Amino acid sequence: MKKIQTDDTDFMEKSPEAKIKGIIPPLVTPLDRKGRVDEESLEKLISHCIQGGVSALFILGSCGEGSVLTDLQKKTAVRCALKAAENKIPVLVGALETSSQKILEEIKSYEDMGAEYFVSAVPYYLTPETQTEIFHHYRFLAEHIEGKLIAYNIPPYVHCSILPETMKRLLEIPKIIAVKDSTGDWSLCQKALFLNPQGGILSGNEELCGAAMLFGAEGCVPCLANAYPAFYSKMYQYAREKNIEKVIEYQKAIVEIKKVLSFTENWIAAVKYLCARKGLIQPYTARGIPMINEAEQKRVEAFLADNEKLLIKN
Fold first, then answer.
1. Three-state SS for 176?
2. Which whole-number Å values give the CA distances from 302 to 57, 231, 263, 297, in the listed order?
3. I need a surface site. Which of 97, 230, 231, 309 has the fewest CB within 10 A?
4. Res 215: pLDDT
């Protein structure tokens, strides 16, 4: 592999097979009435997504309630997901913690379970103050893990943003194979895409999904793909074909249907209900996250009666 000179050290150029591409649902974590991980439902959800043509799965992210689940819940979900995926597609495991060392310890525990791909935001609560701190955080992780790492840019939850220039530096580190940008900031996303023509940027924002993939993003991580994986897989294929007309059509449908996420007190409850109404999971949420109530369910059903056809007609 070819060496790349950076400001800090020499890194080895990543091979193409190391990359993650396509539609990557950030899976919800199915729970039962007692708050235990519903393994049967998680297996069913994973099968639904694989049959829908997704390229990888992301568990324990924001949508997966990874920041609020217990260690037992998280390890149960990881073990179940790795088994259910059966090495058919990669399983990306979220590691969200309050320090670099704690994130590393969590990743190591998942590596002991057989996980190979990890998604991590910067530490939250005492967040990094500079881009240099952000860079050193991810380099520290990359130097101490065996698997591959995706940097997770989600400023609403960690209160700082990975800037495009830093994304470029991070993607020069061999074990960092992608940056998931969930800022919703098109100017930032576009600059990151232009600075990284070799790839490595994943869109984590559904409103920008179509445009980002047409501009070079290698995939999208959309929460609605839990319920509608085939729709997003088709959109990804149209983006690869540079079929702008179809991508625009699909993006308009996404913008409309995503309104459903505002019908519940917490958007995760809405995503879980979309999966529950398909018979995939039960709609229970983790402690502290309000579950969908009857009035909200009625509003969701009334909305979907008029709009769900946008996602299932194609």
1. strand
2. 30, 21, 11, 9
3. 309
4. 97
Please state the length of the chain.
314
Per-position DSSP letters for 44-80, written without gaps between them: HHHHHHHHTT-S-EEESSTTTTTTTS-HHHHHHHHHH
Distance CA 102, CA 119 (A): 14
The neighbour count for residue 111, using CB atoms within 10 Å, is 15
pLDDT, tens digit (0-9, with 9 covering 90-100), for 189-248: 999 999 999 999 999 999 999 999 999 999 999 999 999 999 999 999 999 999 999 999
State if pTM tops 0.90.
yes
Residue 309's pLDDT band (cuts 50, 70, 90) = confident
Phi, psi of 94 (to 5 degrees): -75, 140
Tell me how many degrees the CA angle 288-108-54 measures, rounded to the nearest 5: 70
Q: What is the pLDDT of residues 225-240, one digit of tens each?
A: 999 999 999 999 999 9
Say if CB 250 and CB 226 are below 8 A apart: no
Short-list 234, 201, 235, CA closest to 216: 201
Taking the C-alpha atoms of residue 269 and residue 267, their distance in angstroms, rounded to an integer, is 5
